[in-house]
Design a protein that fits this description.
By secondary structure, the chain is an alpha/beta fold. It has two domains: 7-191 and 447-466, Leucine Dehydrogenase, chain A, domain 1 (Rossmann fold, 3-Layer(aba) Sandwich), CATH 3.40.50; 193-349, NAD(P)-binding Rossmann-like Domain (Rossmann fold). The chain is 46% helix and 13% strand. The chain has helices at residues 7-19, 26-33, 81-97, 118-134, 153-166, 190-205, 209-215, 233-244, 267-277, 335-343, 351-354, 357-371, 380-398, 404-411, 416-441, 447-466; strands spanning 37-46, 52-61, 69-70, 73-75, 103-109, 143-144, 225-229, 248-254, 257-260, 287-289, 302-305, 324-326, 347-349. It contains 16 helices and 13 strands. The chain binds glutamic acid. Residues 70-72, 146, 148, 178, 330, 355, 358-359, 362 line the site of glutamic acid (GLU). Glutamic acid is lined by residues 70-72, 146, 148, 178, 330, 355, 358-359, 362.
Length: 470
């Protein structure tokens, strides 16, 4: 039993399980596993009513085999030192799994965002950024935050503005944080990226015939029953893309409760309903329940936990009816529960693979900032002209004209959003193939272990080729 294990210890348990399949020097494994640095900060906040409050915050850099360190900043009451260390470690492995050249980092501020006004959140964000700058825990080549639970492009805009104002001559200052608004150096498609990446990952998994056969499922997403826990940025987009591709969203849950309709919720209507009423509760036509955790145990094919860690535990693991658990959140299934679910033949699509779409598109944003130009700016028109010429050559050879509208559509060069989405798709597809290959060549280990094996082997090669520091 390991329910006493902290979040970071649970991540390390996965690490050790995977490392046992590899012949890597124990000292090197120790180095890969360790969290390199943690910065703990407390600072005062002047509340709107004039009173003063102390805010507690952290930033962890788990690894530096590649720089900068990369990972989101979370605003939640669950934040503590162990949590940021665990999440930073997951970032290290996640980046390695999808071949994104970063070390792993994560930050957190221990606040319940519902208790603060927007100006208060702005003051907290700017002060936190200032503290990171002071100790060299942020910078385009040092450590690059991004959104996470409780933060969004709004906070990223405050971060880049604060950072820029402290070093106005730094040409690459925009690359100090990703997930920014597009007007502030963000890249098209970053907001949806984690959810879209989850969709690509699930689509890959359900396309493998032999795996689906073992689970008693048909291949493809069409008609698959899906439950999504958490309709935040990640859960909402994952649900939307799965729904658009023919999956049936039978239940969703939010802080206020659970909605269930075994014949499938009308997803678009539900989202408009939530926008209007501020809640998912009592959505017409569906069964509405007060307990958000019920959603995890209702019947479905694919369960997508997209909220916080430690949701599927030893207590409820036996009640999970899903055949596939798709970890859109970081660490939603505990180590004990992972073992239980695997014993029952449930497939877990691990977080360090499945939710890597966010950091993948963050990488594209960072590259865009460093090159100081929109992705595809130089090629779009060239590509369009080339395609038009090819089509005209075909027209001449055939001796007949195509519809000019068809020509325009076929010849169109790629926009930034097309490049981002195709880069994301390629990344998720290739990483899944890599993990599946490892699974096959390592006695059919589970996908989490395979993903960890993939990450550890790549990081070990990095360290070996770097040479260990004296
Ligand atoms: N917070 C996201 C994650 O957990 C994104 C990190 C990033 O883009 O750097 O993967």
């Amino acid at each position: 039993m390991s329910s006493h294990l902290s979040f970071f210890e649970q991540v390390n348990r996965y690490f050790e399980q995977a490392a046992s399949y590899l012949k890597i020097e124990p000292g090197l494994l120790q180095q890969i596993k360790s969290c390199n640095s943690v910065y703990r900060i407390s600072f005062p906040l002047r509340r709107d009513d004039g009173s003063m409050q102390v805010i507690h915050a952290w930033r962890a850099e788990h690894s530096h085999h590649k720089t900068p360190a990369k990972g989101g900043i979370r605003y939640a009451m669950s934040v503590n030192e162990d949590e940021v260390m665990a999440l930073a470690a997951l970032m290290t492995y996640k980046c390695a799994v999808v071949n994104v050249p970063y070390g792993g980092g994560k930050g957190g501020v221990k606040i319940d965002t519902r208790e603060y006004s927007i100006p208060e959140i702005e003051r907290i964000t700017r002060r936190y950024t200032f503290e990171l700058v002071r100790k060299n825990f942020i910078g385009p080549g040092i450590d690059v935050p991004a959104p996470d639970y409780g933060t969004s492009k709004r906070e990223m805009a405050w971060i880049v503005d604060t950072y820029r104002s402290l070093g106005p001559n730094d040409l690459s200052a925009e690359a100090c944080v990703t997930g920014k608004p597009v007007t502030q150096g963000g890249v098209a498609g970053r907001t949806e990226a984690t959810g879209r990446g989850c969709f690509f990952g699930i689509r890959e998994a359900v396309s493998v015939k032999e795996d689906m056969k073992k689970l008693g499922l048909d291949t493809g997403l069409d008609g698959k029953k899906v439950i999504v826990q958490g309709l935040g940025n990640v859960g909402y987009h994952a649900a939307k893309f799965l729904h658009d591709e023919g999956a049936m969203i039978v239940a969703v849950s939010e802080i206020e409760g659970t909605l269930y309709d075994e014949s499938g919720l009308d997803f678009e209507k539900l989202i408009s309903y939530r926008t209007e009423t501020g809640s998912i509760k009592d959505f017409p036509g569906a069964k509405s329940m007060d307990d958000p955790s019920v959603a995890l145990t209702l019947p479905c094919d694919i369960l997508v936990p997209a909220a916080l860690e430690n949701q599927i535990t030893i207590e409820n693991a036996d009640q999970i009816q899903a055949k596939i658990v798709a970890e859109a959140a970081n660490g939603p299934v505990t180590a004990d529960a992972t073992q239980k679910l695997h014993e029952r033949g449930v497939m877990i699509l691990p977080d360090i693979y499945l939710n890597a779409g966010g950091v993948t598109v963050s990488y594209f944003e960072w590259l865009r900032n460093l090159q100081h130009a929109k992705l595809g700016l130089m090629d779009k028109r060239f590509e369009e002209n080339t395609n038009t010429k090819i089509l005209q050559t075909v027209e001449n050879a055939l001796g007949k004209k195509f519809d000019p509208k068809v020509i325009a559509k076929v010849a169109q060069g790629a926009d930034e959003i097309d490049l981002v989405n195709s880069g994301l798709e390629e990344t998720m597809v290739v990483a899944y193939q890599e993990i599946r290959e490892i699974q096959k060549s390592h006695k059919n280990v589970d996908l989490r272990t395979a993903a960890f094996i993939s990450a550890i082997s790549k990081i070990a090669v990095d360290y070996e080729e770097l040479g260990i520091f004296p």
